[in-house]
Amino acid sequence: MDDQRISETLAAIDAAADVDAVEAIRIAALGKQGWISLALKSLGAMASEERTKAAPAIQAAREKIANALAEKKAALDDAALEASLASETLDLTLPASEVPKGSVHPVSQVMDELAEIFADMGFAVATGPEIEDDWHNFTALNMPESHPARAMHDTFYFPQQEGVDHRMLLRTHTSPVQVRTMVSQGAPLRIIAPGRVYRSDSDATHTPMFHQVEGLVIDRGIHLGHLKWTLETFLKAFFEREDIVLRLRPSYFPFTEPSVEADVGFALENGRRVLGGSGDEPGHGWMELLGSGMVNRRVIEMSGLDPDEWQGFAFGVGVDRLAMLKYGMDDLRAFFDGDVRWLRHYGFSPFDQPTLSAGVGARA
Ligand code: PHE
Questions:
Q1: 111 and 64 within one domain
Q2: Do 342 and 214 form a contact (C-beta atoms < 8 A)?
Q3: Residue 362 belongs to a domain
Q4: Which of 101, 131, 137, 197 has a 20 to 30 Å separation from 315 between CA atoms?
Q5: Which atom of ligand 1 is nearest to the CA of 178?
Q6: pLDDT tens digit string along 204-233?
Q7: Are residues 216 and 286 in the same domain?
Q8: What residue's CA is closest to ligand 1, atom 5?
């Protein structure tokens, strides 16, 4: 073995300034064509006696150099870590006003407000998957395969998978959570289910993704009066006014029977719709707000409960729409642009938790 070459290599490793230099030395010595590797290879051509003499020195040199390389690399890595730790310190004692502030998105704020209002009426929050199967999204909600209401939903379907019975899709409403909750928790039930829903639709009042909150009550002897009281109590608490007037209009949903659409009365003030009062007064009008009804007994049955024992009501309402009405935004698309100026204007302070005692909608 060339002792001088070994000590030169060790000295070069010691002097290397960065990992690239270390790597270059490694390749020159231990790489495929490196001089140590070639020396090792030359052993094969030697007579066995000669090999026994030469091998230990080459092996020892290889080990020495490999160890020196590993040590040097570890030392350089440590130094790099120390340097980045030193340069990336974050002073947590700085006053918060020096740092850009985040704000709570109106959709999150409204969802928190809804959870607070309904918790006070004994409702728990339930969730379900956004990637749903067509059984939960349609079939169990009394929309069998060829039902025309399926076509009305502008559904985003996933490609059909082989060996999978149910077609997968992005849920078109939060109603599948009704089914999932009845199946998993049985009765009685009082839940709201807020979340994202998807429909292939896009203009100033429709975005392909939007938010709904579903409500479901299942118990014995539930009737339309319970639904009306619950909606009225919720809307008065949400809009923080006692003069909210509801009009229930006969409607149709496959999963409720009877179905009712709820309109709220508004007055026009300076060209803007202000909720409150009956829509029948002069200068007033009605605005469609949500869909609801008594849960269809077929849905209760398909969810594994006995419809002769359990009845209930359900409703579904657009969260974005509620936010626009309460806080006065006029273009739904701005909700999903992520424009910080819009968020700064309409956003809420994270310290401003909605509570019934302090008010569910204090402005930031
Ligand atoms: N799922 C319906 C929709 O998205 C709303 C609804 C929910 C209607 C519950 C009745 C009962 O339009």
A1: no
A2: no
A3: no
A4: 131
A5: 9
A6: 788 999 999 999 999 999 999 999 999 999
A7: yes
A8: 316
By residue range, what is the domain housing residue 181? 106-346
Question: Which residues sit opposite 194 in a β-bridge?
Answer: 213
Positive or negative, the CA dihedral 251, 255, 256, 260 is: negative
Q: Where are the alpha helices (DSSP H) in 95-169?
A: 106-120, 134-137, 148-152
Are residues 322 and 260 part of one domain?
Answer: yes
Pocket of ligand 1 (CB under 6 A): 173, 175, 214, 253, 256, 291-293, 314-316
Atom of ligand 1 nearest to the CA of 317: 5
Cα–ligand 1 centroid distance for 261 (angstroms): 9
pLDDT in tens, 52-100: 888 999 999 999 999 999 999 999 999 999 999 988 888 888 777 756 6
Q: Which of 216, 207, 177 is nearest to 323 (CA)?
A: 207
In terms of domains, do 80 and 110 share one?
A: no
Read off the CATH number of the domain in which 181 is found.
3.30.930.10
Round to whole Å and give the CA distance between 270 and 267.
10
SS3 state of residue 175: coil
Q: Answer yes or no: do 13 and 131 share one domain.
A: no
Q: How many CB atoms lie within 10 A of CB 265?
A: 20
Q: To which residue do tokens 């701005």 refer?
A: 334
Same domain? 16 vs 157: no
Q: Are residues 129 and 48 in the same domain?
A: no
> Are 156 and 267 contained in the same domain?
yes
Given this model, what pLDDT does residue 91 score?
Answer: 80
Pick the last residue of a domain from 87, 117, 135: 87
Atom of ligand 1 nearest to the CA of 259: 10
Residue nearest (by alpha carbon) to ligand 1 atom 4? 173
Checking if the pLDDT of 172 tops 80, the result is: yes
Name the domain count of the chain.
2
3-state SS assignment for residue 42: helix
CA of 361 to the centre of ligand 1 (A): 25
**Distance in Å, CA 290 to ligand 1 centroid:** 8
